[in-house]
Amino acid sequence: MTFQERLQQGRFLISSEVTPPKGTDVSEIIGGLENLKGRVDALTVTDGKSSVMSMTALALGHLLRESGFEPILSVSCRDRNRLALQADLLGAAALGICNILVMTGDYASMGDHPQTKPVFDLDSIQLLRVIQKLAGGQDMEGNALQGVPKFFVGATVSPTPGTTAAMELQLLKMEKKISEGAKFFQTQPVFDLKAFERFMKRVAGFGVPILASVLPLKSASMARFLNKNMPGVFVPEEFIEEMGKASDRVKAGVGICTRIVQELKGLCRGVHFIPAGWERKVPAILDGVRL
Amino acid sequence: MKFDQIVLGEEEMIAVEPRKIEDLLHGLGREKRTFFIGCSGWKNLCSPGGEAQLQRMKKELELRGITFTGTMVVDALCNKGMDELGLLSHFRQILRADALLAMACEVGVQALSVTSGRMIVPALRTLSVQGFQGILGEKEPCRLCGDCLLDLTGGLCPLYFCPKGLLNGPCQGAYQGRCEVDPKKSCGWELIYERLKAQGRLEALRHYAGPRDHSEVLPLIRLRSSIATEMRSK
């Protein structure tokens, strides 16, 4: 059964994030995912995350598929113009990758090639419309395609973006994304469950499944770093204190993440792990959750 | 003469031309009454039209069902002092209007947006500002995209205020209202949100803005070829 079918059936879904390597050797990455087999519904492959140059998501997505995983291909608007975006989407479909996660993308100056030319030829809303058009058998200029791709398309939303204006804008843009074909949403990492619950109440009428991102904490200083630097992320003080006091920080981090996932299970349709090197800890977190 | 055949100062340093009439009708569409402001421009710098062109455009729009509360022509719409004087002298007609239509370059449109606090629909698109980029006021910049959206964004250009040039709302990178690219600056889309909110026009944010037409972006092929011809003849 595919990710799309499971989502449509209303099951609580688990996905996990994978970032392609800087280089050609994928053995370590794929090896590290072995214990997620059968435990996650899909793997989201990042596309030049944080503007750091790495292998194309399309190639890793294909290799993951060959290894028995179902990939969700992230497609960012930062690096490719409308020709290249459409070309890669057709390539993905030809390789059997139909789950697409559309996003604007981090700005180029934030990564390891800060002098590059940021593209942003299309924005996420326009790209969603282009994908719909491709799935209807035409490129964005209306030329007929030889072989029509099938896509299942999702987008991203920030449930707690900070200001009132930002929140209203997120909701407006989310509605636009839905009307342009987004069938599911992934969020920024969620720690503040009360704020997330308020967000879920506001989008209850939208009728699209939401997968909340979860990021296991590794230390109190990581939590403080997130609060200071990561837009839309707020780690409550109680978690920071718990991490600070813990004698076994791995156990504490896994414990907090398990509790967050357990709570999210009552609030949304799935979780999306951002393990950031803790791929091997994901099964332990899932073991602790009554799914 | 037809609306889209009105020839404006293509030979001037600031090149402008009428926007598509469909875009104007869309911009004015839900507004019931319009006040039309022309700009006579600066000698040798720009020629955005004047009374004659304004009347011609007005007639064409009236045929398409737009009603006007009045018109005026200001000497240089990019000069906020001039705008304020003009607005004061016609304030009754302006108060009765739901939108202001501005026949000026996009710098003038943005200046008018600041002074009037009203919804401004640009009647022209600005194509080129040869040698004059930036001198007309750093707060009202025009990126010369030739595809003006200022009526939908409260007079703030998303190409300038958003480093990613997003046309359909913000990314998720703003932190407490600050842009991810330069935390010293506000998120451009939050500024647009506040401006539209003050105008009671938040519904403009629901508009789908299509991909930009980069074939129209500077240097315009026809302008470039005319410059090249001039250089050869010298």
Describe the structure.
- The complex is a heterodimer of chains A (291) and B (234).
- Chain A has helices spanning 3-9, 27-32, 57-66, 82-94, 124-135, 164-179, 193-203, 220-229, 237-245, 249-265, 282-288; strands at 13-18, 42-45, 71-76, 99-103, 152-157, 184-189, 210-214, 270-273.
- With 291 residues, chain A is of the alpha/beta class.
- Chain A has a domain at 3-157: Alpha-Beta Barrel (TIM Barrel).
- Chain A has an eight-stranded parallel barrel with strand order 1-2-3-4-5-6-7-8, surrounded by five helices.
- In chain A, helix 10 (249-265) packs across helix 11 (282-288).
- The radius of gyration of chain A is 19 Å and the shape is globular.
- The mean pLDDT of chain A is 96.
- Chain B is globular, with a radius of gyration of 18 Å.
- The longest helix of chain B has 13 residues, at 51-63.
- Chain B is of the alpha/beta class and 234 residues long.
- The relative contact order of chain B is 0.13.
- Chain B has two domains: 1-148, Rossmann fold (3-Layer(aba) Sandwich), CATH 3.40.50; 152-208, no CATH class.
- Helix content of chain B is 33%, strand content 15%.
- In chain B, the strands form two sheets. Chain B has a four-stranded parallel beta sheet with strand order 3-2-4-5, with helices on both faces. Chain B has a two-stranded antiparallel ribbon with strand order 1-6.
